[in-house]
Amino acid sequence: MGLTTREENGVVIVTVDGQLIVSNRQQLKQAVMDELDNGATKFVVDFGETGYIDSSGLGLLVSLSKRVGEAGGALRLSSLNDDLGSLFELTKLDTLLDIYDTVEQAVEGL
User: Are 29 and 59 in contact (CB under 8 A)?
Assistant: First the structure.
């Protein structure tokens, strides 16, 4: 998995390239937690280049959403492909997490 982080209008955008699975989920956790520790509170995780997320990755996203929320911030997801969108619907995580079609839509209003 490749991970890139950038800031846009006060929002930290983390792009996940590849798969979010048990062996690499700590990279995403560390990236978000480091930014949170540095005072960031608005996050978008861009899955436009992500093909697969396993159950540990889903659990991590729930955990990160809770942590960011407890810090008074918001975590949004964007750019899920059809398979990932179906996965979030099947697991009902689409009702728990804020999901947007594009990064731009996710950043808007944060």
Answer: no
For residues 7, 70, 61 and 17, what is the CA-based torsion angle, rounded to 10 degrees? 10
Core vs surface per residue 83-107: b (16+ CB within 10 A) or e: ebeebbeeeebbeebebbeebeebb
Assess if CATH 3.30.499.10 describes domain 2-102.
no
3-state secondary structure of 3: strand
Reported as a single tens digit per residue, the pLDDT across 57-69 is: 999 999 999 999 9
Distance CA 33, CA 57 (A): 15
Task: Give the 3-state secondary structure of residue 26.
Answer: helix
